[in-house]
Amino acid sequence: MKKHFFLFALLLLISFGAKAQLIKDRTNGKITMGFDLYTDINTGSKYENFNLRAINQGFATYLTYNFQMAESKHTVSLGVGVSFHNYYMKDAWLSEPYNTVITFEEASVKKSKLMLGYFDIPLELNFRIADKFKISFGAKVGILMNSRSKVYGDVFGDGHNWEIKYGSVNSLESIVYSAFARVGYRCVNLFVGYQIKNSFKQDKGPEILPFSIGIGIRAY
Predict the structure, then answer these.
(1) What's the CATH number where 112 sits?
(2) How far apart are alpha carbons 206 and 44 in whole angstroms?
(3) Number of domains in the chain
């Protein structure tokens, strides 16, 4: 399953790279299209039965408009995008996502995850070095679009593997804030990000403050 995911992600990166370069050529560099593939490491405090696996893959895509800084090659970029975070839990599942206070139950499960999707508004400073290199720093506001949870395994201890899905999760913050940075060569860049605001409301669920690290692709 992981091999299929990374193969699919690689194909997406190649496809986005071609489209991003095409947009750059047609708009004279004013508009940038990008795609990020990353894993999330939760830096929040421990929460009962909420333990994540090492790899929690997520992805994002965005479109920015670039404002040139004076006569330099540096730019300020403002845009829109979407991002998705998948949090895979170990030996626990979200049994009652509609409660005011979110808790997790221990269980023998094969797969258990929480997915959060955001509409993003990024602001970014881009510094070009020796033409082919670029260093970027930015921040973004994420507006919650959707949430869901899924589990597959023996959640009831009856020897049967159940698959249970919920279309929404309660007590999530509607707006979160993040900071990020990139170091790029041509169309490929290394990406790191940190979510400053907890995904859940205060004392209503686990503290999810993801540190994201991954690879991105966009026109240079």
Answers:
(1) 2.40.160
(2) 8
(3) 1
CA distance 183 to 5: 24
Contact 82, 57 (CB under 8 A): no
Q: Which residue has the tokens 């169309």?
A: 187
Amino acid at 185: Y
Please choose, from the candidates 112, 124, 132, the residue with its C-alpha nearest in 3D space to the C-alpha of residue 178.
124
Q: What's the domain range around 130?
A: 2-218
Would you call 157 exposed, middle or buried from its count of C-beta atoms within 10 A (0-12, 13-18, 19+)? exposed
Contacts of 159 (CB under 8 A, 6+ apart): none
Amino acid 166 reads Y
Residue-by-residue pLDDT tens, the chain, 220 positions: 445 555 555 555 556 555 555 655 555 668 899 999 999 999 999 998 999 988 899 999 999 999 988 878 889 999 999 999 999 999 999 999 999 999 999 988 999 999 999 999 999 999 998 878 999 999 999 999 999 999 999 998 888 899 999 999 999 999 999 999 999 998 899 999 999 999 999 999 999 999 999 999 987 6
Taking the C-alpha atoms of residue 21 and residue 4, their distance in angstroms, rounded to an integer, is 26
Give dist(CA 207, CA 200) in Å, integer: 7
